[in-house]
Amino acid sequence: MKHRRPPGVASVAIDSHPERTAPRPVTCARDGREHIVSEHTMTRENAGRYVAWCGHRVLAAALACPPGRPCQDCFAIDRARTDAQRRRRRADLSIWARLAAWLHC
Questions:
Q1: What are the start-end ranges of the H helices in the chain?
Q2: What is the distance between the terminal CA atoms of the chain, rounded to a whole angstrom?
Q3: pLDDT tens for each residue of 51-83
Q4: How many helices (H) and strands (E) does the chain have?
Q5: Strand 69-70 and strand 33-38: pairing?
Q6: Does this model's pTM top 0.70?
Q7: Is 46 helix (H, G, I), strand (E, B) or coil?
Q8: pLDDT digits 0-9 by tens, 77-90
Q9: Cα(60)–Cα(28) distance, rounded to whole angstroms?
């Protein structure tokens, strides 16, 4: 995947796939809330402006700023995503793997 660069600057390939990258909380300077932005979105050159999972356009606050209140919509999406991943992993385990994990505890 290639990114837009200023004319005359070589493009750089990204090694990570958008769905496989970790989400990152980013505090918005406009509303003071902490929104979740995918790492893939953050690797693009967009001058500190990102689209959060809830659809809000985030203007990233300085890293020295304390985290804001969490955006309820972003964190609800993150919880649903995490729960779905957990259920998928659980379903992927065979009965023997679950039994071995249970006996090991």
A1: 39-42, 72-92, 95-104
A2: 43
A3: 898 999 998 888 778 888 999 999 999 899 889
A4: 3, 5
A5: parallel
A6: no
A7: coil
A8: 989 988 988 888 77
A9: 5
